[in-house]
Structure formats: structure tokens, C-alpha cells
Amino acid sequence: KAVVSTQSGHYGRGDIDIVDTSEPVAVLGQRLKHSKKKPKVGKKGHSDAVMSLSWNKLTQNIIASGSADCSILLWDLETGSAKECLTHHKDKVQTLCWHLAEGTTLLSGGYDNTCQVTDCRTKNSKSWTVDGEVEHLMWDVSNPFSFLAGTSNGSALCIDIRQEKPLYTIAAHDNEVSGLAMTKQIPGLLATCSADRTVKVWQISDNRPSCVTSRAFPEAGSLHCLSFCPDYATMLAIGALEGGLLMWDIASNKEFREAFNHPAVDGS
Predict the structure, then answer these.
(1) pLDDT tens track for 100-135
(2) 160 contact partners, CB below 8 Å, separation of at least 6
């Protein structure tokens, strides 16, 4: 399944197993004029652009959507309706991520310079203020109590939800940190990307981060996102403004292999 958000406040869900289809399986929300009114539960959806989506892998009929209307809606795919509306952010909601092991815990970040962890059963949330707009969030794949955040000021932070202050803050890039990626197959490995057209690889074991290597993609324009391949742990897929989809096998880099005691690949 694939989900695509739109600037009109609704989004579509498609089935990639169906060949040659041009229409989504379902469209959640309606085409609405931009409004200052807060969205309500039901089928109407957001009153402004949908900026972020997160599919709950533990409760697969639930999708969270974050919007420029400053709200988060929790959608039930079986009914096509929003069941809950979260309004704890004071500005646009830029990024969302469900917890990897707790299906009712949602991580969110916004233009209000806050990261929020919300228990969707009670709507109670805990907030951390960071040094800029929150561009991207992800849960730490090796620690269920920690998450990582990238900000518009080029910082990458790791926060333990049991504590009030970050475990560490990295001055990661010269521009916003638009993507973060980890893989369970290589503990302590973090990759970041940025509008500064670079990807950096970090060793973050023991909460003592250090930059292992970096690579510039000068012809690609801004880099928007990145992810490790689930079947090939060192292969990074990178989404770029100009270059489309880029690929980088970081195992071809000597500094990475030495830092993580990783075997060389053919030809490197």
C-alpha cells in the first residue's frame, strides 16, 4: 500500500499490487477551502495542506496525518473517517512517526519548534522545545525510549522521553536536516541528509556521536529524505530535488568500514 498527501487537505491511499491503475483505492478527507476553523472528527478532514503522514504498523487500519492547520487527525481506514483530532501543536505539523512497539504512542514535530510524544488513548502529551522548526523525526531503532529529531537550523538531536533535556545535540549540517535514517542491522549507525546537498554518516554509540564520513551530491539540489534498504543494510536511498532517487552503498567508503568493522565490498 502507498499513501500520498496533497495540498488541498486530503490524501489518497493506493494499492501498488494493482497494475495500471490511475486512481487511489480510497481518498480520505474532502477538498475544502482553506479555513481558520479547527478540523473535526468525521470525513471532512483537514482545513489546510496535509504535510505529514504516518501509517501505524501495529494497528494497520490507523493512519495519522499532520497538517498546516496545526492539527493531527487519526484516521480509520475501514470507515474512511477521522476518529480523533489532536491539537497540542501551535503551528504547522511537519512530521509524524508512530512508536515501533507501542501502537498508541505518536511522535510529532512542527513549525512551533517542539517535539511532542502523545498517548493517543488519553491525548496526554509531553513536549520538548528545540532550536528550530522540526523537519524530521524518527524513533531510535535500538532504544524504545529515545527518538531523533532534525531541525531547520541544521541540528540533529537525540531525546530520551524519560528526561527533560536531549542526550546530545549535533551541529550536523549547514542547512536544515531533512532526513534521518537508522538500521537495526548495524547498531550505532545514523545517516542524515540536508538541503546543503550532503549526506553524513555518524557513529552514535554510547550517546557520543561522531561523524564518520560524508558525501556531497552537488548536482542533486536539496536532499529531502533518505532510508536504508531493509534487505541490504549499507545501501542508502536518497530523495533529491533535482536528481530524483539516488543510491549510495556506504560500504564502499573506507572510513565507514573501519568505524563499524564492516567487510569491504567488491571493488572497494
Answers:
(1) 999 999 999 999 999 999 999 999 999 999 999 999
(2) 143, 145, 146, 167
